[in-house]
Amino acid sequence: MNCPRDESILYTDKDHGIEVERCSQCKGAWYDFGELAELEATATTGADALAGMIEYSKRQSELKCPVCARPMEAFDYRANNVELDACPEEHGFWLDAGESDRVRDIMRERTRSLGRSASAQQTWNRERGGGFKQGGVIDQIRRLFGGR
Known about the structure:
Layout: E1 10-15, E2 18-23, E3 29-32, H1 35-41, E4 55-64, E5 71-77, E6 83-86, E7 92-95, H2 99-127, H3 137-144
């Protein structure tokens, strides 16, 4: 395969334990279709962090897929300021130099945010009596609006 950025021949390399094809010139890497999820999983704990849409603001890329040579689609990874390129035939993803580390940083932050959210919900339930019990949140809302 050749690099979609500069046509250099890609060589097999490991990135965070995942076998990828890398460009010796631009240092970008080709991740086969399932390998982006594997990269995300190296930075998360639990399936909840992997859930959700990853492709936002899709647009045509200037790059061509190194497998089928079709124009790829660029997108903002998980609505962050990281532009990745994907083959529309689902052959894989092109990550420029340093983007695999940025993907892992985003996933680590996503995991931390989910943990904070779950912790806040548990605290709320504990302090408010579980929400659905007598005297819980629902009863407080009813009283607020004059209901019994």
